[in-house]
Design goal:
- The chain is α+β, with helices and mostly antiparallel strands.
- It has one domain (2-71).
- The chain contains two helices and two strands; from the N terminus they run H-E-E-H.
- It has helices at residues 19-22, 60-71, and strands spanning 38-45, 50-57.
- It has a two-stranded antiparallel sheet with strand order 1-2.
């Protein structure tokens, strides 16, 4: 819950989140966004017969969508 508290005037707040979290919450007062260009996606692994969260590079269209969401609020 500390992420939602207002930072002091001389303090920079850095928030690191996955693509899963960024679609679930909105944090007011964000000034800069640093994107890792990686996302976690659910993939089926045939060798184990299970789903797994795998980290993969983000697609260009997804990156543009995220950028638009932050800059055109």
């Amino acid at each position: 819950m500390a992420v939602f508290e207002r930072a002091g005037a001389d303090v920079r707040k850095v928030i690191v989140a996955t693509n899963i979290a960024e679609t679930s919450i909105t944090i007011p007062g964000i000034v800069y966004v640093v994107d890792s260009c990686f996302v976690k996606v659910k993939m089926y692994r045939g060798d184990t017969g299970m789903d797994a969260l795998v980290t993969v590079p983000v697609s260009r269209s997804s990156a543009m969508q995220v950028m638009a969401r932050f800059f055109f609020q």
